[in-house]
Amino acid sequence: MEPTISFFSGFTPNDLLFLGEAALRTLWISVLSISIGTVLGVFFGWILFEGKWAAALTVAPVLDIFRSVPLIIQLVLFYNFAPIVGLNLDPFASGVVILTIYTAALVANVARGGIEAVGTPMRRAARSLGMSYWQDLRHVVLPIGGRAVFPAWVGVALGVMKDSALVSVLGYVELLKASQILITRTQEPFLILSIAGAFYFALSYPISRYAASLEKRWAQ
Amino acid sequence: MIQIRDLHKYFGTLHVLKGIDLDVDKGEVLSVIGASGSGKSTLLYCINGLEPIQQGSVEVDGTDVHAKGTDINKLRQQLGMVFQQWNSFPHLTALENVALAPKIVKGKSKAEAREIAAQQLKHVGLGEKLDVYPSALSGGQQQRLAIARALAMEPEYMLFDEATSALDPELVGEVLETMRMLAEEGMTMICVTHEMGFARDVSDRVAFFHQGVMEEIGPPAQIFGDAQSEHTRKFLANVR
Ligand SMILES: Nc1ncnc2c1ncn2[C@@H]1O[C@H](COP(=O)(O)OP(=O)(O)OP(=O)(O)O)[C@@H](O)[C@H]1O
Ligand SMILES: [Mg+2]
């Protein structure tokens, strides 16, 4: 009798659940990419710092490419060309691979900045106490440099979480893709995008709060 | 004892140390003076292996600092160093600053390391500041913290590179006082300094460096009263 009503107000509590699940997938793909990408990025940052011209000729340009080519192009290219070299990855795995490399490329510069922030005099003081190169790196450079660039790293992490929405172009149903599906069905873009936005906010707000409290504790 | 023989140091093509011969005996306090750029800091860095050398040798208690097989990290435990900039580890309390190296380098237990640290901090007059972060310490206190940090490794020698130059004038005294105390306790010290009063009163010998050459070395009375070298006399006339 009233087909229009069922068509336009199709948003049900179930759909909220659907969005919630999608938000968890956003969280999962982000956490995975950011953690692995950060470890790799710190390693690359160290290479950039120590490698001098050798690194400037090899690692640096590769990282530059991943940093400057738009993520959506990287995703589509990788997803479509990986099978040619025998890599059959599903959208999720492809997304993780590209987001991880992208994170690593961004974190590498942050990490190099962190090492530079510590400075030669501080490191000489550490070495003069008998610390080895690795002890200096672990007990002096990591905590001091890490704190110096922590805000920049949080920025990268939050950015990657938002950018993970682009994995939707491969068909992975994360938060943005889920919203599009619901919008097509319910024709309620305003409502659904608001809810999706709220989910993104709910994912990143605790992170920025926690980061801010950490920074405050370190500042004393 | 520290034995330096025909030491040459270059930075690229810049010849910074031009054949230094110098012996420092156990228990001796040597002050090193000279104009900016004369190679005083570089000499200290060559002694504890923070800078490589191009010719000659440095031996500490018979161990060649720059030989390939030398365990430099082990050797540096014998050579405490205090820098112009105090370089406190900002993320650690005073106690943790001092306890870190005994713990990770010497493998002391946490309790032992903290014990040593507390003792050394009391020694330099910071017994009240154990749990304070460096940002809450004055420059003079941070420099004394740096001295305690070096002493906690129980070194045989202490190298001071203008330990008071970066301090506000009113804070210089407390650091010199600490250095004087170490000298009285019999510590072997090489002090690069611009504090002529300290060099005269505390040191057994004073070395004057001029453009990478050790122009003159002798007891304070000789250097300050009866300098043989024209350059020494000129330098002293200008700083006084
Ligand atoms: N890492 C470096 N690279 C290139 N040149 C250097 C380096 N360190 C020092 N020099 C140069 O070596 C010379 C000696 O420097 P050094 O720091 O030993 O002098 P100094 O006697 O300690 O002077 P100051 O009283 O200013 O501390 C200077 O000309 C300086 O510019
Ligand atoms: Mg100097």
TrEMBL record, chain A:
Family matches, as InterPro entries: AA_ABC_transptr_permease_3TM (IPR010065), ArtM/GltK/GlnP/TcyL/YhdX-like (IPR043429), MetI-like (IPR000515), MetI-like_sf (IPR035906)
Domain called ABC transmembrane type-1: residue spans: 23-211
Primary location recorded for the protein, binned into one broad class: membrane
Membrane topology summary: Multi-pass membrane protein
Leader peptide range in chain numbering: none
Subcellular location: Cell inner membrane; Cell membrane
UniProt keyword Protease, yes or no: no
GO annotations of cellular component type: ATP-binding cassette (ABC) transporter complex
Transmembrane intervals: 27-49, 95-119, 190-207
GO MF annotation: an example: L-cystine transmembrane transporter activity
Keywords associated with the record: Amino-acid transport, Cell membrane, Membrane, Transmembrane, Transmembrane helix, Transport
Pfam families per the UniProt record, alphabetical: BPD_transp_1
Assigned protein family: Belongs to the binding-protein-dependent transport system permease family. HisMQ subfamily.
Protein name: Amino acid ABC transporter membrane protein 2, PAAT family
Organism field: Shimia haliotis
Automatic annotation (TrEMBL), chain B:
Membrane topology (UniProt): Peripheral membrane protein
Keyword annotations of the record: Amino-acid transport, ATP-binding, Cell membrane, Membrane, Nucleotide-binding, Transport
Predominant location category: membrane
Subcellular location as annotated: Cell membrane
Domain ABC transporter: 2-236
GO molecular function annotation: ABC-type amino acid transporter activity; ATP binding; ATP hydrolysis activity
SMART domains, per database record: AAA (SM00382)
Family of this protein: Belongs to the ABC transporter superfamily.
PANTHER family: AMINO ACID IMPORT ATP-BINDING PROTEIN (PTHR43166), GLUTAMATE_ASPARTATE IMPORT ATP-BINDING PROTEIN GLTL (PTHR43166:SF9)
Record-given protein name: Amino acid ABC transporter ATP-binding protein, PAAT family
Organism: Shimia haliotis
